[in-house]
C-alpha cells in the first residue's frame, strides 16, 4: 500500500473536505429551506434515477468500498469528521443557543483547513504532505469548482455589510472579489426549470457562487436528516461481544453476601445532608438564582490581578523606568544640561539629584560602559525579591467625618465670649466669688483677707470687709430679700449684713442676725454645740467658730440653712446650721473619706458630698445614702448640680470634667478632658443651658449643656468657648467661676487678683 | 465708570477730578461756585486746606477752619478716588462736594473734679450742668470747675439725673431737677437759676419720691416737666408727679427735719402715680421724648415703647444684649439709639415696617457703652461713652466716629451734649470733662 492508498487518500480527502465545505455553506445559508428542497427533490429523484438511496446498509457498504477503496482507519477518520458535521447540521436544525459557539469553532476549523489548502502546509504530517501535493495536482487538473473563485477572507461577518458593495470581500492577496453578474429572477427560474440537476444546486452567498451537490453528498445529507449515522457503513447496533467468558467459571468473582451497609441509608450522608440543611437554614449557603453575569468588556492590557485571588496578595514589582530620549547616545541638545546645571546638581540633596546626566557621543561605539549598571541591577533585584513589598492599607477617611455631629456654635448663642469688665481692687489672688441672685452685685473673697462686694454693671467696689484670714468661700443668701453673705475664712464662718437691702429688709436682717448672740450664749453654756455662735461686732454679723478650717459654705435654697465643710473634721466634717434658730447639727449620716465639696439639691431635700474619689448622694429626710457617683478621676476638686437636679458636673485635679446623668448611671455620662491643669471650679448657669469650668491653666471653658425634659434624650454637651485673659500667679490661674444668675455672663476670679466678667 | 475708576487707580496721582464746592453755610464760608480740577487722591484734610485757600483768596483775613465734606450725603472718610470707587460715582462729571464745618472739639475745658465717680450728667439746660456722683451728691455746674449747688440728701450713689424743663408760661427763676439713686428714692430739687456764689450752696430736696423696692437706675422727665418716670432694678417703671406746686396729690406727709435743729424748708414725700410693668429685669434706661410715650431699655434685652395713658407697651424691640443706655432723637425724633453690654452702638428706626433690626451699627468702641445721646438739633449727630474710657462723636452719614475724646483715664459712665456745642462726660476717674467748640449746625 505504498503510493496507491496515498493517492486514494489524497483523492478521498478533498472530497470529504468539499462535502464539509458544502455542508458549511448550507448551514450558513438558511439551511432548512434548502434541505427541504433537497428532500423533495430526492423524493422525485428516487423514482426517476435508480439511485441506491433506499438500499440497505450492506449495499451502502459495498458502494463506499467500491468508491474509495479506503482502509478502515481511513473511513474511521472520515466518520469522525462527518460526525462533526452532523453535529453542525443538527445544531443548525435545532437552532439551539449554544450553536453559535459551535458554529464559530467549526467555521474556524474549516477555515484553517481551507487555508491549509492554499497555504502550503508542508510542515504537517508526512502523509498529509504527500496528500497535499497530490491534491493540488488534482485541483488543477479536474475540479472546476475550486478553481472558480478565490476564497473570501472577510471572515464571519454579516454579509449585509457587503450588500451594497461591488465586491463580496477580499481574496488572500487583499484584492476585492467582484460580485458576479446576477441573473434576473425570471432567467434563473427558467434555468432552474430546464436544469434537471437544479435541485442539487445551492447558492453560496459567502463566496458568491453556485455549488452543486454530488450524489454522495445528498445521500449524506439525507441520512443526516433522518437522524442516522452519516455513513452507511456505520452500524449502531453492532452485536455485543461479551469478552469475559462465564461458561467455564467455577467460582463467581465474589461470593460474599451483600454487606448490610448497602441496604442501610448512610449515616455519614444523612449527617452531611443535615449539615447542609442547617447551613441553608442559617443562610450560610445561598443559592444564587441568577446566573453570574460575566463582564462583557474587560481591560485587555490590565495588569492588575483579579480581586478574588487568594492567599498572599500579589504585589507587582515596581516597574523600571523606561529609557527616554535623554538616554540616547546622541540626545538632542536640549536634553544636555549645561555646566552650571551640572554644578547646581551638586548642591541638591542626594535623593533629589537626577540619576542620569545625558551626554552626547559621536557614535554608539564611543559610549562607555554604564558604570552604575551593577549597582542598578542590584537595586532592581532588591526591588524584585529581597525587599519585602508591603501593601499599605490606607483608609481614606475625612477627619471631619469622625467628629461627632454637634450643632454649630452660632446656634447656641448666647454664651460668654468676651471680657469687657474687670473688677479691680483685691490685693491678692481672688479665691472665691458669688453672684447675688438678682444679678446686681457680686461678692468676692481673696487671699488678702478681704471680702468685697461689687456692682456688676460698673465694676465699682461697694463694700470691703477685712476679715484678716484667707477667704475660702463666700456665698450670698439665695433669697433676694435677705442680702446677707456667708463667708468662710480660717476656722470661722461669718454671716455678714451687706446693707444692700431696703430699710424694711435691713430691719429684718438685723433682727435675724441679732437674735443669734443670745442663743449663742445659751449654746455655749450647754457646750454640746459643735460650733460657737458669736456676735461679731467688728463686721456686723454672726461669727460661727468652728474647730477646724472651714473650706466651704453653702446656703440651702430656702435661705435658712447653710452647710459648712471642714475637710479635717472627720465625723463632724459637714455641719448644717439653721440661721433662724441658731442651731448647728451634723449631717445625719456617716461620710467616708475626706470630703472636698458639698452641695444641696436645687429642689429636693438631697445632699451631695464629694470626696476625693466619688460623690455621694444622701437623702436628708430618709437619712440614707441614695447613690454613689464614681468619677474615676484622680482627685475631685469641685462639684456643681444642674438646676434641674438630675445632672451634676464634677471637676477634678487632673483636668477632667465629668458630667453625671444621675438617672442614667453612677458612672460619668461624659468625661471632658479639656484642661491641662487642675480644675478649680465648675458652675452651671441657673437658666441658660450653659456650664463652665475654670482651671489653673488660666482659662475657663464654657460649654453648652442642654438637659432635655424628655427622659430618652441624653444631655447634649457642646464645647463653646475658651475664655482667656487671666495671668498666672504662683502657678495658680483662675480660681473660681460663677455665672450671672440672669445673663449669659461668666465671672472668673483669678490668681492675678482680678475678677473678670465675660459677656455674650 | 468702574473701568474709568480702575484706570484712575492704576494711573495714580495724575488723575484729576472736576469738582465744585457748595455749602449751606453762611456767606463768609461760601466759596466761589466755580468748578475746579483737583487731583483725585486728595483726602479730607487736603480738601479742607483747599477750601480754606479758596476762601482766603476771596477774603484776605480768613481764619483757617477745618471742614468736612459730603458727597451724596455721605461723609468723605478716605481719599476722593477711593470714595468714588467705593460708591460707584462717575469721576467724569463735575462732582458736587458739599462742605460743612468739621464736628470736632476745638477746646478742652478744665475738668471739674468730684469726690467720687461721676455717674450721671445732664446738660439739657444751657445754663448749667447737672451731675450725679457716687458720693450721693448731685452737683450743679455753671461752667467748667464752677460748682454753684450741691444737692445733698441721697444715702446711696446717684445713678441718674434729669432736668425738668421750666414751663414757658410761668417764668420762674427756680429751676427744678430730679435725681435717682441707689437708695431706692428719687429726689426733686429746686434752686435759683440766677444765684451765683463763690461757695457751692448745699441744698436739700423739696420732694422725696419713694416707691421703688430696688435701686433706681434711670430717670427721665416729661418734655413739659410735669412728670418724671424712673426705671429700677425692681423691673418696673414708675411715673411720678414732678410738679412742685402740685402738693395736694403728691404730698403725703410733711415733716420737718429734726436731725438738725434748725428750720428747713419742708420736704414732701411723693408716691408713684402709676407703674409700668412688663420688663423682666432691671430697667436700665428710660427716656420720655414725647408727652404720651416713654421708651425704656432693660437688661432683659428689650427696648419697649410705653403708652403713658394706657400703661401698655406698644412696641418691643429685642436686641439680644443687655442694654444700658437709650436715647430718642435723630430724624424727626424717631430713631432709637441704644448701647449695652457690647461695644456696638445700635440705632433702630421703629417707623420702618417689617423689620426690627438695627439700621445702623457703630462698633468702634472696645467695651460696654454706658451712655449715648442724640444732639438736640441735629439729625445726624450722636455722642456715646464707653467703659473703654472714650467718648465718641458720631455722624449717621459715616461709619467712623467723627471724633474720639480720650480725656478720661478710666471708664466713662455718662455723657451728654451741653449748649449744643459741647460734650460733657463724667467717668470713674471722678472728673467731669467738657469738650467745647463742637460746631453742629
Automatic annotation (TrEMBL), chain A:
UniProt keyword terms in alphabetical order: Nucleus, Repeat, Ribosome biogenesis, rRNA processing, WD repeat
Residues covered by the BOP1 N-terminal domain: 162-416
Single GO MF annotation: ribonucleoprotein complex binding
Transmembrane regions: none
Domain of life: Eukaryota
Principal subcellular localization: nucleus
Biased composition annotated in UniProt, kind: Acidic residues: 57-66
Protein family according to the UniProt entry: Belongs to the WD repeat BOP1/ERB1 family.
Stated name of the protein: Ribosome biogenesis protein BOP1 homolog
Annotated organism of origin: Sesamum indicum (Oriental sesame)
Automatic annotation (TrEMBL), chain B:
WD repeats: 151-199, 209-241, 276-316, 362-404
MF annotations from Gene Ontology: ribonucleoprotein complex binding
Superkingdom of the organism of origin: Eukaryota
InterPro entries named in the record: NLE (IPR012972), WD40/YVTN_repeat-like_dom_sf (IPR015943), WD40_PAC1 (IPR020472), WD40_repeat_CS (IPR019775), WD40_repeat_dom_sf (IPR036322), WD40_rpt (IPR001680), WDR12/Ytm1 (IPR028599)
Main localization (coarse): nucleus
Keyword annotations of the record: Nucleus, Repeat, Ribosome biogenesis, rRNA processing, WD repeat
Region (Disordered): 244-272
Entry GO CC: nucleolus; nucleoplasm; preribosome, large subunit precursor
Keyword Manganese (UniProt): no
UniProt keyword Hydrolase present: no
Gene Ontology terms describing biological process: maturation of 5.8S rRNA from tricistronic rRNA transcript (SSU-rRNA, 5.8S rRNA, LSU-rRNA); maturation of LSU-rRNA from tricistronic rRNA transcript (SSU-rRNA, 5.8S rRNA, LSU-rRNA)
Domain NLE: 17-84
Protein's cellular compartments: Nucleus, Nucleolus; Nucleus, Nucleoplasm
General function of this protein: Required for maturation of ribosomal RNAs and formation of the large ribosomal subunit.
Family: Belongs to the WD repeat WDR12/YTM1 family.
Protein name per UniProt: Ribosome biogenesis protein WDR12 homolog
Organism: Sesamum indicum (Oriental sesame)
